[in-house]
UniProtKB/TrEMBL annotation:
<protein>
    <submittedName>
        <fullName>Acyl-CoA carboxylase subunit beta</fullName>
        <ecNumber>6.-.-.-</ecNumber>
    </submittedName>
</protein>
<dbReference type="InterPro" id="IPR029045">
    <property type="entry name" value="ClpP/crotonase-like_dom_sf"/>
</dbReference>
<dbReference type="GO" id="GO:0016874">
    <property type="term" value="F:ligase activity"/>
</dbReference>
<dbReference type="InterPro" id="IPR034733">
    <property type="entry name" value="AcCoA_carboxyl_beta"/>
</dbReference>
<dbReference type="Pfam" id="PF01039">
    <property type="entry name" value="Carboxyl_trans"/>
</dbReference>
<dbReference type="InterPro" id="IPR045190">
    <property type="entry name" value="MCCB/AccD1-like"/>
</dbReference>
<feature type="domain" description="CoA carboxyltransferase C-terminal">
    <location>
        <begin position="263"/>
        <end position="532"/>
    </location>
</feature>
<feature type="domain" description="CoA carboxyltransferase N-terminal">
    <location>
        <begin position="1"/>
        <end position="259"/>
    </location>
</feature>
<dbReference type="InterPro" id="IPR011762">
    <property type="entry name" value="COA_CT_N"/>
</dbReference>
<keyword id="KW-0436">Ligase</keyword>
<dbReference type="InterPro" id="IPR011763">
    <property type="entry name" value="COA_CT_C"/>
</dbReference>
Amino acid sequence: MIPLLDELSRKTAQTQLGGGLKKIEDQHRKGKLTARERLEYLIDAGSSLLEIGLFAGEGLYAEHGGCPAGGVVVGIGSVSGRQCVIVANDATVKAGAWFPITAKKNLRAQEIAMENRLPIIYLVDSAGVYLPLQDEVFADKEHFGRIFRNNAQMSAMGIVQVAAIMGSCVAGGAYLPIMSDEALIVEGTGSIFLAGPYLVKASIGEDVDAETLGGASTHSEISGVTDNKYPDDKSCLDAIRKIFDKLGEPEKAGFNRAKPALPAQNPQEIYDLLPADRVKPYDMREIIARLVDNSEFDEYKELYGQTILCGYARIDGWAVGIVANQRKVVKAKGRTGAGGTAGPGEMQMGGVIYSDSADKAARFIMNCNQKKIPLVFLQDVTGFMVGSRSEQGGIIKDGAKMVNAMANSVVPKFTVVVGNSYGAGNYAMCGKAYDPRLIVAWPTAQMAVMSGASAAKTLLQIQVASLKAKGETITPEKEQALLQKITSQYNEQLSPYFAASRLWVDAVIDPLDTRIWLSMGIEAANHAPITKPFNVGVIQT
């Protein structure tokens, strides 16, 4: 674990530099704070910021010079005591221009605000769409325009939106702050217009400077587009704090919270409990004991469906229902001749979902919805059990039951990818496609349709068959070289950073930060009362 944590620390420090030290110095010379400095100044002293999508864009757009953190900083934090989402364009990265991943990350920020009914703050400093990639960011449903649609819908939902124009704000991007409830602007550095001076000159032949066209005085004194102007970044951010200081109290969902308590078992022992080899077994109960308050886990159906652990606990005081993959090999006590269920004394592989464990998890998930208890999924899953015995026993039917109950849950769901996250197991254990309020990965996580070894052997068979069909002779040496190449390529895609760069997960985190992510996530979810009845539709029986 130590090398993995060192890698996480190194990647974090590098990514947080954005466009680099020179670009940061350029911002300071202009009298501007950087995006991260703005967030640090804005949030309450001593409070935590959950940064969403730090590694978004990692390894992407190399031919364009890269786009660290997607060119935008997003976080959940507290401003004047009020939890909110904050979105800050990073002008050190291509002047804050919008890459495809930038749009995706902004939409994720708005999704979090909408699902949890959290106020949202936009700190705008962007040159607009990155034109060389405009075809990937402009016209589709989940592209740039969706952001303004969300602006409108959030306003109708009563979700507070406050925007500060702290740099460039150009073209379609000009609508984002002006569709917010309040729009502030910084003098000298902030500007907002549908077309900049060069485009105005090219379009209608008018010579006009940026300040006259769309500066703070123009829009605060003449057009009325912005509400107020401020002399510098800090005074503008102070004004936002004053706005949030006067917000009315939000409604609550009413999730149960007791006095928080630390785990009785030392959380740092997680580092030693997780084997470096992702195939080796371990006891997930020991991990849970180091995540939950007082290390107390009230297990549900402890002796049935043992490859999934279900039970009630508290995390930082919040009541939760935990659904976790057990990675130990377990001995089942099934009925004789019961099709896909285990026979007496049959051994079941850890990390695999069997019919009985899927059945148990479905029932537990329904119980948590009945009791209004948020769900936490701890993933270390290789998939559902395969083979004739399982198929004849109806594993697909039982898996569908679990997916149905989980997908239709109305209580908030949170997912932690501890280790493996393969195939349909990812889906059943509330992968990204199933709307977890937050989904994070530990550095030990691996996400793909199947494990590297299985995928490589399958892909090798396909490639060898194709080459033989073309008349090529495949020697054992050539076959081994092909396998190594395929394995190397596939393993790159298993990395949690590969997932994080594409926003399949919100963050890669140190396991010791799991409690704060879950606690702040449930606190956010508690702002959104549950209004939809729990209904699973047709359950396969």
